[in-house]
From TrEMBL:
<dbReference type="GO" id="GO:0030544">
    <property type="term" value="F:Hsp70 protein binding"/>
</dbReference>
<comment type="function">
    <text>Plays a continuous role in plant development probably in the structural organization of compartments.</text>
</comment>
<dbReference type="GO" id="GO:0008270">
    <property type="term" value="F:zinc ion binding"/>
</dbReference>
<dbReference type="Pfam" id="PF00684">
    <property type="entry name" value="DnaJ_CXXCXGXG"/>
</dbReference>
<dbReference type="GO" id="GO:0009408">
    <property type="term" value="P:response to heat"/>
</dbReference>
<feature type="compositionally biased region" description="Acidic residues">
    <location>
        <begin position="400"/>
        <end position="409"/>
    </location>
</feature>
<feature type="region of interest" description="Disordered">
    <location>
        <begin position="367"/>
        <end position="421"/>
    </location>
</feature>
<dbReference type="GO" id="GO:0005524">
    <property type="term" value="F:ATP binding"/>
</dbReference>
<comment type="similarity">
    <text>Belongs to the DnaJ family. A/I subfamily.</text>
</comment>
<feature type="compositionally biased region" description="Basic and acidic residues">
    <location>
        <begin position="378"/>
        <end position="391"/>
    </location>
</feature>
<feature type="domain" description="CR-type">
    <location>
        <begin position="137"/>
        <end position="221"/>
    </location>
</feature>
<dbReference type="GO" id="GO:0005829">
    <property type="term" value="C:cytosol"/>
</dbReference>
<dbReference type="InterPro" id="IPR036869">
    <property type="entry name" value="J_dom_sf"/>
</dbReference>
<dbReference type="InterPro" id="IPR012724">
    <property type="entry name" value="DnaJ"/>
</dbReference>
<keyword id="KW-0677">Repeat</keyword>
<feature type="zinc finger region" description="CR-type">
    <location>
        <begin position="137"/>
        <end position="221"/>
    </location>
</feature>
<dbReference type="InterPro" id="IPR002939">
    <property type="entry name" value="DnaJ_C"/>
</dbReference>
Length: 421
């Protein structure tokens, strides 16, 4: 985060006034002042929730050495720009409960709102499947590693469950570093505390759980059976709720598999429809054809034309109910489209030409000698139009570049100036 230092002195006394302490207050003074003000204004005792939030926000900033230094020098605006909301990113009830061993309200009967848990991140894995798998349906067994709460210490990290607030981050789990980039320009960054790995608390070495070594979680192997249903689509998600990494005071996230359909050498898929290419000879296109098409489930489909049917180049035929299954509608399928191309012969002999002329409609009347005498004779040659256009475009670009070089001349761009009399 980059911020230009303020040109005028910013308000940096508000948080001290909220807690009722001087700017020279020690960390111990801040704790006492916060505890007194928080108990007095706690919503469970009829206090104002907004006032309670302000008190927690003030203490969160002033109890963190880095945040306090930024606040004293630049005021609340710098914290808002760098960390959002004046640095008040933590739940005010969480801050309050940390003074009473995480037990929530000290007034008896429990807190009226309870401790809010954050949600863990989802773990997303791509799942590559063939078109045959999506046509028939299949089950994949996948082995994954995940973190689970340590069973020996119940996710507390220590034998007795005892821990202390991290002195490096004052229990926030985060640290703020500030760097001077230049006159009036600073860079402010927030990162997890290295001392406590972002947990906000530390455990004495002699109290660490021997199984998890104080990490509160252990790694385990888990095998998931992923059911790929008939007709599922590319990029469709299969979710295993609450199966991601576990962590203390955290709602476990999901494991999500995203289907990645592999390319098929023969069939192309568009939604619930399938497309396949087939080339006919000129004889087949004119006189009829039949061929066998092996489907995705290994069935042999006999494909044949109707009597007297002529297939034109670049035309399509469709077969109903031979496309992909419709997901979760097992008795419905899309269509199978066959795209026909026609393979024409490179040349014909005179006898072949006469034979074809005998059965095909006669061409338009030949031109008379008088009409042809008035024409200029030309010669046709075969051409790949895409290559031809590509070469022309390249030649035009090169010619344009040459024109630019000529205009600039050997000494660079020439400028015309008016001569003064």
């Amino acid at each position: 985060m980059f911020r230009r230092g303020p040109s005028s002195k910013s308000d940096n006394t508000k948080f001290y006034e909220i807690l009722g302490v001087p700017k020279t207050a020690s960390p111990e003074d801040l704790k006492k002042a916060y505890k007194k003000a928080a108990i007095k204004n706690h919503p469970d005792k009829g206090g104002d929730p907004e006032k309670f939030k302000e008190i927690a926000q003030a203490y969160e900033v002033l109890s963190d050495p880095e945040k306090r230094e930024i606040y004293d020098q630049y005021g609340e605006d710098a914290l808002k720009e760098g960390m959002g909301g004046g640095g008040g990113g933590h739940d005010p009830f969480d801050i309050f409960s940390s003074f009473f061993g995480g037990g929530g309200s000290p007034f008896g009967g429990g807190s009226s709102r309870g401790r809010r848990q954050r949600r863990g991140e989802d773990v997303v894995h791509p799942l590559k499947v063939s078109l045959e798998d999506l046509y028939l349906g299949t089950t994949k067994k996948l082995s994954l590693s995940r973190n689970t709460l340590c069973s020996k210490c119940n996710g507390k990290g220590s034998k007795s469950g005892a821990s202390s607030t991290c002195s490096g981050c004052q229990g926030s789990g985060m640290k703020v570093s500030i760097r001077q980039l230049g006159p009036g320009m600073i860079q402010q960054m927030q990162h997890p505390c290295h001392d406590c790995k972002g947990t906000g608390e530390t455990i004495n070495d002699r109290d660490r759980c021997p199984q998890c070594k104080g990490d509160k979680v252990v790694s385990e192997k888990k095998v998931l059976e992923v059911a790929v249903e008939k007709g599922m689509q590319h990029s469709q998600k299969i979710t295993f709720s609450g199966q991601a990494d576990e962590a203390p005071d955290t709602v476990t996230g999901d494991i999500v598999f995203v289907i990645q359909q592999k390319e098929h050498p023969k069939f192309k898929r568009k939604g619930d429809d399938l497309f396949v290419e087939h080339t006919l000879s000129l004889t087949e296109a004119l006189c009829g054809f039949q061929f066998v098409l092996t489907h995705l489930d290994k069935r042999q489909l006999l494909i044949k034309s109707s009597p007297g049917e002529v297939v034109k180049p670049d035309s399509y035929r469709a077969i109903t109910d031979e496309g992909m299954p419709v997901h979760q509608r097992p008795f419905m399928k899309g269509k199978l489209y066959i795209h026909f191309t026609v393979d024409f012969p490179d040349s014909l002999s005179p006898d072949q030409t006469k034979a074809i002329e005998a059965v095909l409609p006669k061409p338009k009347a030949d031109l008379s000698d008088m009409e042809t005498d008035e024409c200029e004779e030309t010669t046709l040659h075969e051409v790949n139009i895409e290559d031809e256009m590509r070469r022309k475009a390249q030649a035009q670009r090169e010619a344009y570049d040459d024109d630019d070089d000529d205009e600039e001349g050997p000494g660079g761009p020439q400028r015309v100036q008016c001569a003064q009399q």
